[in-house]
Structures are given as C-alpha cells and as structure tokens.
Amino acid sequence: MKNFHIAIIGGGVIGSAIARELSRYELDIILFEKESDVASSTSKANSGVIHSGINSPPKSLKAHFCVEGNKIFQSLAEELSVPVKFTGKYIIARNEEEIKDLIKLKKNGIENNVKGLRLIEAEEINSNEPNISSKYALFVPSAGITLPYQLTIALAENSIINGVKFLLETKIIDINNINNKYNIKTNNGLFKSDFIINAAGLNCRDIVQMLEEPDFKVYPCRGEYLVLDKNCNSLIKKLIYPIPQKKYGFLGIHITPTIDGNILLGPTFEYINNINDTKTTKEKMNLILKEVKEIIPSVNEKAVINAYSGIRCKISPPEYDRISDFRVENSKINPGLINLLGIESPGLSAAPAIAKEVVKIISKNIELSKKTKFISKYEKYKKFSDMTNVKKSKIIKRDTNWGRIICRCENVTEAEVINALSNPLGAKTLSSVKYRCRAGMGRCQGGFCTQHIIRIMEEKFNLDRTKIKLKSQKSNLFIGKIRE
Ligand SMILES: Cc1cc2nc3c(=O)[nH]c(=O)nc-3n(C[C@H](O)[C@H](O)[C@H](O)COP(=O)(O)OP(=O)(O)OC[C@H]3O[C@@H](n4cnc5c(N)ncnc54)[C@H](O)[C@@H]3O)c2cc1C
C-alpha cells in the first residue's frame, strides 16, 4: 500500500486546481478520478464565465473566492496556455422596475470590491451591442470567458509534469481513519494518505459519509443550454445577462459568447433527483429560446447546433430563499479531511483562489517546503486554424500530419489529434480528443472525423477497436465485426 501526503478525490476544476497549487511543494500527491478523463462532470458543462463576483452576498466565501479568483485568472491562463477573454458583461434592465435592481446590484458589487461598475443607457448599449433591446444596463468590465474543460485539463496536465500522480477510472469506495491517517479503498487497490481532499463535486456527501455523518444534503439542480452555430457570432460581443431572477435560480438565462466563436444560450434551472441525469428537453429548449428572444429578437432557432446540460451542486433545498455559501473546511471530527462542499457557480471562477485556501489550511497542519523546480509554464501548440499561412506551410514541411485535415468543421489536423491522444494523463476516449483539440465539436458533431480518429487510435496508438470508448468505461463504440 503506497503512502501519500495528500489524496485528492475528483478531477474537476477544483481538484485539478488544488493538485496544481500543491504541486509547488515537496509533497507526494495522488488524485483519484472515477471517470476516464478529468473535467468529465460539472467542470465541462457550464457557461465558461469568469465571474466578477458582483452577484454573491457580501462577506460570503463565494464573493471572496470569486473576486480573488478573477484577479488570478489572466496570469494563470497565460502560464497554462489556456485562452481567456475579458469581454465584460452587460446586465440589462428590461423595464423601469428592473432599473432599481440594477442599482442594488451595483451597490452589492461595490461592497464585494468589484471594480469599474457603470450604469449605462440605450445609446452606449446600442453602439456596442446593436442586437440587444434594452434601455439600461450595468456594465461589468471584469467579467470574461474561458474554456472550462481546457483549463481543467491544463491544470491537471501541468500538475502531472510537477509530480502529481493521477489515477483515472479509479473510484473511491471507502475510507477509514486510523489514528488520523487515512486508508483509502478504490476499485484499483488500496492507498494511504495523511490528508484527504474531498473535491468530488456532486458526490461530496458520499465521501463525507464514508468517515462521518454529513450535516448537509446535496440538491442537484440541472441547467440546460443551447449552442448556436459559429455563423451567429456577430450577434453579441459581451456577456449579456438579465437581472438575476429567483425563478431561474440565480443568474437567469443569459447569452454567452464562447472562446471558440459559438454562442451559448441558457442555463435553465430545475431541481432533479438524480445527479447523473444530464438530459436535455424540448420544453426547456423552447423556454430558453423564448427568454432569449426577449433580449435578442433576431435569434433564430435554426442556428442551434447542439444542446447540453450541467448539474449544480446545491447544498440548500429548493425552499431556501437565500443564497447558500461554499463550504471549504477541515473536518473537526476527522482532522485532515478537507471538504469542498456546495461548489456551485461561481466555482470555476473561484477555483484558483479556493486552491490557494486549501494550501493555507494544509500549511497550518504541516510544514510545507517549496520545490526549487516547479514548472509553471505549460506550453501548447497553437491551433492549426489560428496559424498564419507561413507558419502552416513551415509546420507541414516539418511533419506532414499537420497537412491532413481530420475535422473539417473545426479545421483540426491529424497532428493535433495525435497530440491530443499523447496527453500525459493517458486519457484515450473520443471525448478526450474532442475536449483537447475540438475534433467533433463543429456543425456535423463528429459525423466526418470520428472514423479518422478511430483510425489514428488504431494505427498510431495500437488501440484495439473493441476497446475504443466514447467517453466513459461503459461507452464502447464497437462490440465486434459484422463481416470478416
Ligand atoms: C449549469 C451550470 C453553469 C455554471 N456556470 C458557471 C460559470 O459560468 N462560471 C463559474 O465560475 N462557475 C459556473 N458553474 C459552476 C462550476 O461549473 C462548478 O462550480 C465547478 O465546475 C465545480 O467543479 P468541481 O471540481 O467541484 O466538480 P466536478 O467538475 O463535478 O468534479 C468532481 C469530480 O469528482 C469525481 N468523483 C466524484 N466521486 C468520486 C469518487 N468516489 N471517486 C473518484 N472520483 C469521484 C467526478 O467524476 C468529477 O469528475 C456552473 C455550474 C453549472 C451546473
């Protein structure tokens, strides 16, 4: 049984950010992820917004970590070669009544130390966002966008380079506290650790329950989205939000530009019983389109190319009429069990600051010594589609795989698919390729490139066709040959 100083449960953005922050120190760290890749759950299915912190209640952990996380994002993204854009956000008032809410929101933001907030009128809105129908808006300059799954992947891969061990497809089944050292039982064997970091997202209660009686419940709450084709990307430049509406949870159905040029519409807000129920529905699709058309009347449903949903990890019941806070705490009953509970939105924005807080908690219990050789930079190849023609011909001359387009919609080359499959985590599903290089994310949603990716998996990585998976252990693409 191998001993570790730190065992992290969960390879979402929270667990991966913690792994990377801790990898600055001389520690033996292991991260367990039950799925076939990191960012397999909520961290891949959200709006990808770097929130400013304007909406969270003053003095809450949500406000604190979100504002601090927002400040770190630019430099973190640069270090990890993850794209971010601080586009700014307009929160719009649709009637006189909502203007009062804008003023309240501005006051809340100022209390949370959010900078640059400004109430603006129709002329300024129309000159920047001609497709929006609104007379007043609150401009929030520090809001931005990123690619949440790429951030999570980069945090994880950079942690590995700095010595963290990641075990995919490894589920924590049980944990025992033996004199404040933890014995961890998984489907991949037994491990020992001094600290357990519970970053299991929607499963956070199950992990607590392995060691003590939890004092909270998880109330999963689904948010559905629609994705618009890239040819709609001139509709908006900034994030466009309505006034937060109680009936849609918190932030309301908003319109979000993405780094890759698509536009997201959503999310909806619906308490559900099953944390894995990520279905999308016609009913919510119609609701999203109705709400969005009130803000951008010209939105066309024919431009919808995909739908997805993500599940919020709420730890307050539907009838609770306030905003519940994050919980980031060292257990009193089991010292060394550090729980990250109820990390719903703005968890992505807050992740870099939460990770630093976890280091602080650990440093109160053991002496941490910094590594002399922490590698903070994680360089990646530029996307082929973003290269200049000169760069494209140079790179093709060096390696002809750069000259073979595999995904026509997104212009992804064979070399990029090979790079994606050579990831340090060892993730080798169709999804792991898609989230690393976008092959399969375009208009045809994998109709053309899937066969080529499978060929590359077989030819270049010696994968047996019957073992190739879509995204998880149970999602085999083929069961055998129908003809020899
Ligand atoms: C609809 C929606 C929109 C959102 N929009 C935004 C936004 O725009 N901006 C923002 O800042 N935040 C947003 N959020 C919040 C943000 O997505 C989450 O706070 C964040 O992704 C949570 O990350 P996590 O690592 O805690 O959880 P997850 O990403 O769910 O990761 C937890 C991981 O733990 C693994 N795991 C669970 N149990 C076990 C076990 N027993 N053994 C091993 N592994 C286990 C899971 O497989 C999973 O991969 C949104 C959330 C939703 C649902």
Summed up:
The protein has 484 residues and is α+β, with helices and mostly antiparallel strands. It is built from twelve helices and 22 strands.
Describe the structure.
- The protein is an alpha+beta fold and 484 residues long.
- The protein has 3 domains: 1-81 and 146-215 and 322-380, FAD/NAD(P)-binding domain, CATH 3.50.50; 89-141 and 219-314, D-Amino Acid Oxidase, Chain A, domain 2, CATH 3.30.9.10; 385-467, no CATH class.
- 30% of the residues lie in helices and 22% in strands.
- The protein is built from 12 helices and 22 strands.
- The strands form 5 sheets. Strands 1, 2, 9, 10, 11, 12, 19 and 20 form an 8-stranded mixed sheet that branches. Strands 13, 15, 16, 17 and 18 form a 5-stranded antiparallel sheet that branches.
- A hairpin with a 4-residue loop joins strand 21 (405-407) and strand 22.
- The model has no long low-confidence stretch (mean pLDDT 95).
- The structure holds flavin-adenine dinucleotide (FAD).
- Flavin-adenine dinucleotide binds at residues 9-15, 32-35, 40-43, 46-49, 51, 171-172, 199-203, 223, 267, 310-312, 343-349.
